[in-house]
Design a protein that fits this description.
alpha/beta, Rossmann fold, 2 domains
């Protein structure tokens, strides 16, 4: 294991910048702490260097203690990425609509590299199929292209991989609660809980209805998606997005 002073000057400079950035401390304090860490602490990777800097800075801080990490970064210095999964029954009407609308808003707000989005169904009736043609037509009128999406069933890995798993209605939320471990129920919710213009807490299933039902679904999802993006933007600003705690949480679930 190398001591930091044994690194090349260029490597030491990068570490100084990195650990100072990660610590989220006032500039004067973090620069001093970085120098202390560089001279006194042995490290063998970036994460240890980050923690070493924070520990070295503790005696230099005022009584209120450490500041939060820089907005947009986790405590270990990784860029925060919030992962969202939309869920309906068959993944051919409501949840692919939610995915398409949400992706569109993320592109408009330049958040594509900060938020990962997907959709799935609680049942595998339509696995591998494209979204319902009526869903695609209604979405296309508003500029959303759903043609490349393919339906899949929720996998057990989804329940640990995604930070927010948002069902379209209570029935599908209940299914998710039955298959999701209790310690992960805080990831589950209803998409319409983010709506500002609708009192409904469910997005109705348009599959067996008339054409105008697909337009109503779009109206509701567009409204709720805007509220969800506002919530995520606040999480990213405040640095409250959770870090995955295990390797399983960081592994992308395989597609069906």
């Amino acid at each position: 294991m190398l001591r930091l002073r044994e690194y090349s000057p260029a490597a030491r400079r990068r570490l100084r910048i990195g650990v100072a950035r990660v610590s989220g401390l006032p500039r004067g304090v973090r620069e001093c702490g970085a120098r202390v860490a560089l001279e006194r602490v042995s490290v063998d990777d970036y994460a240890l260097a980050s923690r070493a800097c924070i520990r070295a800075c503790v005696p230099l801080l005022p009584p209120f203690g450490l500041h939060r990490p820089e907005a947009g970064f986790t405590a270990s210095g990784k860029l925060k990425v919030i992962k969202v999964l939309f869920v309906c029954m068959g993944n051919i009407c409501r949840s692919p609509t939610a995915e398409g609308v949400f992706r569109h808003i993320l592109r408009q707000k330049n958040l594509e590299d900060r938020v990962e989005v997907d959709s799935a169904g609680t049942h595998g009736y339509h696995a591998g199929e494209a979204p319902d043609q009526r869903t695609q037509r209604a979405a296309a009128v508003r500029g959303y292209d759903l043609s490349e999406m393919r339906a899949r069933k929720v996998a057990s890995q989804d329940l640990s991989y995604f930070d927010q798993i948002l069902a379209m209605d209570h029935n599908n939320l209940d299914v998710l609660k039955r298959i999701c471990p209790l310690d992960r129920h805080d990831r589950l919710g209803l998409l319409m809980s983010y709506s500002k213009s609708f009192d409904d807490d469910e997005v109705p299933d348009p599959y067996y209805g008339l054409g105008h039902g697909f337009d109503l679904v779009l109206d509701m999802i567009e409204d709720a998606a805007l509220g969800l993006v506002e919530s995520i933007e606040q999480q990213l600003r405040e640095g409250t997005a959770a870090e995955p705690s295990t390797e399983a949480d960081t592994a992308r679930p395989p597609s069906d």
